[in-house]
User: Fold this.
Amino acid sequence: MKEQLMAIQEEALEAIKSVEDQKTLQEVKVGFLGKKGSLTAVLRGMGKLSPEERPVVGELANQVRAAITEALEEKSAQLEQEALNQKLEAETIDVTLPGRPVEMGGKHLLTRIIEDIEDLFIGMGFEVREGPEVETDYFNFEALNLPKNHPARDMQDTFYITNELLLRTHTSPVQARTMREYKGEKPVKMICPGKVYRRDTDDATHSHQFTQIEGLYVDRNVRMSDLKGVLDTFAKSMFGEDRQIRLRPSFFPFTEPSVEMDISCKMCGGEGCSVCKQSGWIEILGAGMVHPKVLEMAGYDPAIYSGFAFGMGPDRIAMLKYGISDIRHFYTNDKRFLTQYHQA
Ligand code: FA5
Assistant:
C-alpha cells in the first residue's frame, strides 16, 4: 500500500506539472483527491490493514495528500500570475501616442450679436433688463394698448397656454414691467434682449422662435429726433457707414407716431433677391414714440414724461451683417454652419 501511495504521489505531481490551465488543474484535483479519486480509493482500503500498519500508512497518506494539495495550490497561483501578465501585456497603453484633440465650443452667432448690441447701448447709458418668456395676456397686449379683441393682435399670431397665459410674442411687455417697477417717478433707459415666439410659418426670414431686443427711453423732453439719433448710431456701428438705412411710417398700437427701419440687403446689394423678397431692403426693427396711454397705464404722467421705444430682430441683423441667406440656420444646430462664426 505504501508503494501504491508513493506511485499516486509521483503520478499526481507529474500530472500537475504539465497542466496549462485552471480547468485542467481542477480535473486533475478531482482525479486524485475527489470522492472517486485514486488517493481516496486507496484510503478506503485502509480498513483491511493490521492495527500496527494503520497509523503508519495513515500518516503517509496524509503526507501524500498534503504534497499533492501544495503542488495544486502552487500551480494555481502560477497560472493566475501568467494570466495576469498576459492581460497586462495585451492592455498596455502607449502613453507616447498623440492624444485626440478636444473640440472647443464657441458662442452662438446670435449670442455674439446680442452681446455686441448690449455693449453699444450700455455705452449710450442704457441698462440691460430681462423679462419672462411665459407672459400674461395683460403685459403682452393690454398694458401696450392692445385690449382684448383688438384687431392689431393679429399682427402677432400667438401661442396661447391658457386664456390669460401665453408665450410672449415680442419683448415689449418688458417696457410695461419696467415702467411699473419705476413707479412713474424716475426716468427709464433700458434694453431687454430675449427669445420671443409667434405662430409664423418658417421661411428664409421668419422663424416661429426668434430673438428681439427691446429698447425704452422715458424722461422729460424725449423727442423723435432722439430716437432717430440713437437708431442711426446703432445702424452705423452695426453695419458700417456704407450700408443704406431707411425709416418708413408704420403702425404699432403702443407707439405714436410709429416707424419701421430697413437696411439695404447685403445679399443682392439692393438689386432685389429671394432674401429681401425682391425689395432690396430688409426690415430689422419697429419703433416710435411711446403712446401716452401706455405711459399712463404704467403710472407715468404723459404731460410730464415722453419716451421712445424700439424692438429689433437680432436674427435679421446677423443675417444682414454676415450675408446669411436663411434664418433657419440659427436654429438647426448644424456644426458646419455654427463653427464658421466661432471667434478664436
Ligand atoms: C414688434 O414686435 C414690436 N414689439 C416692435 C416695437 C417695439 C415697435 C417698440 C415699437 C416700439 P414687429 O412685429 O415688427 O414689431 O417685430 C420687430 C422685429 O422683429 C422685426 O423688425 C423683425 O426684425 C423681427 N421679426 C418679426 N417677426 C419675425 C420672425 N417671424 N422671425 C424673425 N424675426 C422676426
